[in-house]
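Section 3.1 - Work completed
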Amino acid sequence: MADADDMMLAAPPKPAIDGSSAAAILLMLLDESEAATILKHLGPEEVRGLAKAMFDTANASEAQIEQALDRFVVRSRDVSALAIGADTRIRTVINQAVGNVRADNILAAVAPQRSAASLEMLRWMDVDAISGLLASEHPQVGALILSVLVPDIAARAIETLDELLQADLVLRAAQLTSVPAAAIEDLEAVLASANVDGQRVAKQAIGGPSDVAKIMKKMPKQLSERTIRALKKTDKLLAQAIEEEMFIFENLRDLDKKSLGTVLRSVDAAELAIALKGTDEEMVDLCLATMSKRASETIRDEMAEMTMVKRTDVDEAQKAIMLVVRQMAASGEIMIAGAGDDYV
């Protein structure tokens, strides 16, 4: 009969537990008010994820609970005592040293940026309520609202608006580069919120063509095309920048083999060699696999002969190829998969 040591060696290992499950278990071990206090500091997606994990771990075994506690203890050892309440202590010290006005100026320049309470509130709002705000408020405030939303929510919120307002909001959001404190204050007033800790709000980098492109990709094809056409009448270069961001060179991976081959046979071989020089080997193999052996070998030889290639040259070559892609998609020669069952 096996002795105790043999039995211990034969015992199965503890079941693995991921970070979300461990966090959910810890929250369920806390008092309800304590758990609620923690959740108040999280965003909507994090709360939703933890809520699901809490349901999934409601029947956690003793081994899983022990593992969650072990993870917490190990991670806690890595947290410096200096980090606890550091923000409040630093602000208090600077305020006492140089006064509130000068402290505000110093901290606005050096303190880590923090999202305004109003921006966090927007992420919890119902889509219909957001659409109502976009329709009733000044377009510049609407552009700010649009830029801080998750792209799919923004796309749904703008979908029901007047065509001219849609184009105006998209234009203004694409032109945003940073947001001054005054604009945040306007948004605060709109949302009837004044919870910015009395601190000056630093400018935050949001919006721009890249963020708007993400929103446009979530919109129905007909609506996104109509909005781009309207935008071109106001700012052709900006509309082009958004189109370029909607489908970049790396998205060639999403094309089926036939469509990819159709595109690559229509572009200049030398230009393709430069464009591929700025990608990984997997992308190179994917593209060249759609071509004849002789053509792929020619391009590989051209790439091998290149030494240093400027990033700007690579970008220009990739943009030229993507222009061909958009032209072929517009003519119906290829289909580019978009959100859901739509195509753009």
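Second construct:
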Amino acid sequence: MPIQWASGKRPVFVGAGWTMIRRYMPRTHSSNAKEAATMAIKDAGLQIEDIDGIFIWANPNWGTGGPDPRVWLDVGHMMQVMPWKNIKFWLQPEAVAAGSCSAIQCAALALGAGAVDYALVVRTGHHPAGVRYRQISSNRAHGEAALSLTYGHGVGGSPQVVTYQRYLAKYGAKREEMWGYVGTAHRNAQDSPSSVWRGRLISDEDYFNSRLIAYPMNIFDNDMPCDGVLAIVMTTEDRAKSTPHPGGYISGMATMPHHMEKGGIQAFLTANLEEAEEMCGRMADNLYASAGVGPDDISLKHVYDGFSPMVWQWIEAFGWAPKGEAHTWAQPETIGRQGPHPLNTSGGNLGNGRIHGFSHVLETAQQMMGTAGVRQIAGAEVALCETGPFANGSCFIATRE
């Protein structure tokens, strides 16, 4: 059954803010957080004292021994970087990696329940020199890790190749076809003001000749760890009427059905292809039922692309292409901003940098508010936003009006 919000209480986006996204930015994440939050509040036509709720998805943390103060931006930290006046509720979802949509879901529920009036949702990327991105310190790989962690990297691209290779073999896809998506993402990112790749457009030759990370994935199939903060402001439909450009009313939400995962929650990147397809498909079905729409109703598509092969599987899970055909469907003439199915219109993770899917959230909000500038998609009325790989995916659907 579709979500039923109380009259006037539909959660909606009203403001967006960001910093530049850069590799080894010579600024503190406190300064970045303040800049992004200040911009988002101003964009919403509000004052700092209007914000009474803060929602942050702070995981994952780099390093090996728990939260590292050099990279960690949690709610407690955020409380210190702005002169807040009226915070009365806050929440920090502790889901495992890449659940950026989970913070949007929490804010939407708090707004709908009346716990807050104006919510700030923040996500940080901070990757200083000397902090390795989830590097495995052991010199042994036991059990299935001998196959999935052979490159010494505990999350992301190297385990992803297991499912990717299976997809290529099962459906007759070619590794070279992935350039259709990666190239489109990089072209889209050239018009994204904050993008780490803006001004550095890669070519197909760059892609095909780039360094392999774990075959068949090369360096451009993996998003870049970087620094930067993105933020949005949300409120309810009744309060949004007094803001400059409300848009993006939350109409549906879903998260990955972990109970279907045979290998357990930590196996999310090493699940076999068929298991991943089944779980992703179930989440898609739940999302559509929650919003009361179907695949053909989605006019703006944002799916997680921290690692490029996931894009093909999300496309099929959400029903935009038949199973086994995303590799031919996800080409520029179809998914480009001028095509019939605009996908990751700001460049996604691969084009913007690793802010763990919040660039998808930010772009969804701006497109629905009509503030995306040259990236604006005419007639985009229903947007789907998904963040997170496989088992820790989360998603929502938002409408322009």
